Amino acid sequence: MPITTDPKLRSFVDYDEKSHFPIQNLPFGIFTEKGQTRPGVRIGDMVLDLAVLEKRGFFPSRPKLFNTSTLNPFLAMGRSTWRAVRATVSRLLREDVGELRDNSELRGKALIPVQNITLQMPVAIGDYTDFYSSREHAVNVGTMFRGKENALMPNWRHLPVAYHGRSSSVVLSGTPIRRPRGQVILENQENPVFTASRLLDFELEVGFFIGPGSELGHPVPVDAAAEHIFGMVLVNDWSARDIQKWEYQPLGPFTAKNFATSISPWVVPLDALEPFLCKAPEQVPRPLPYLQAKNARTYDINLEVYLQNSRISSSNFKYLYWNIAQQLAHHTITGCNVNPGDLMASGTISAPGEGGCGSMLELSWNGSKPIRLHNGEERKFLRDGDTVTLTGWCQGAGFRVGFGEVTGTILPALD
Ligand code: MN
Known about the structure:
Elements: E1 28-33, E2 36-43, E3 46-49, H1 50-55, H2 72-77, H3 79-93, H4 98-101, H5 104-110, E4 111-113, E5 118-120, E6 128-131, H6 135-146, E7 162-164, E8 170-172, E9 177-178, E10 181-184, E11 193-196, E12 200-201, E13 204-210, E14 229-236, E15 239-240, H7 241-247, E16 261-263, E17 268-269, H8 270-273, E18 277-279, E19 297-299, E20 302-307, E21 310-316, H9 324-332, E22 343-345, H10 360-363, E23 371-372, E24 378-379, E25 387-395, E26 400-411
Parallel strand pairs: 6-22, 8-16, 9-26
Antiparallel strand pairs: 1-2, 1-5, 2-3, 3-4, 6-7, 10-11, 12-15, 13-14, 13-22, 14-16, 14-17, 18-19, 20-21, 20-25, 23-24, 25-26
The structure holds manganese (II) ion.
Manganese (II) ion (MN) binds near residues 130, 203, 205, 347 and 348.
């Protein structure tokens, strides 16, 4: 295990054991302070300015990697650079290393309180793909629409189903979400009407960012996938179920999902998640050889959904049937190339049993069982003014490696 994830590491920056951003995490983001936008690493409630450190010569191998307003150049460099930068940042933040701790001039410039910054999109996203990799979610939705016997389509256990999404409308946490309008079939009607969506929903997902790209015509082998994946964020794939139901056949979702997808601002490196690797779910039938990893593993990441401050769901990333290596291997098996900064999301993650559903569609069982919030209100789907917050973290011994949160509030539809 790399030294940067050692549970015994302590930083001279203060935080408590529930902080999502201890020295074992060190996620990367993009922030603006005093009119300048640049990359930073989060530690407790502070941001370490990578552009300042680069100017002072702390990252000698690649000048100008952090003199930018996106993480894309850094993502493109690959694992050895990611690890070298992470090791330097980890060392500088240690409580037993004086280089930054005892240099008050540098500390004043390089460590900035989060309340003084504005967060930006961390990555310029070229392409966005959304998978459908939670068996529990697929079974729930399939049961609702096709009945228990036909819940999973015949292809589902053989390949990670996905659709090509829309990167232009991927937005940062905190961006308000306008209720979309579109074509909907009302009850007992044959023809559609044009209306504001009445069945607006969230989807609890986790996404990963591509690091070094692949060449057109050259699939990424399942066992090499990790070389191409930098890290992960929380994703809320907002969905309009009434629009989706009418439009989705035969090519899958289109306008029901292209109006907004929210992501959390801090990208947690796979290196920080390594101590939380766990066994991936057993796959029956055995997938075809190009989807068989030598060591099939996934990550133990606790996930929660809050609606108006009421926790309405608890799930875990480890339940995902198809892991991220299989997703990338399948995505590229035809020779489709990927580029630094591409986003691939898991699909709605639902847990087995009650209380772990990753969408309102499942929580309210297609609107037939309203859920109750702390304040006594009920919901079947989202109302105007509702705020949905997703959060996630890995639990270490006395610390959390977390993702922070991704949040968004629903605005009324246009007139
Ligand atoms: Mn989705």
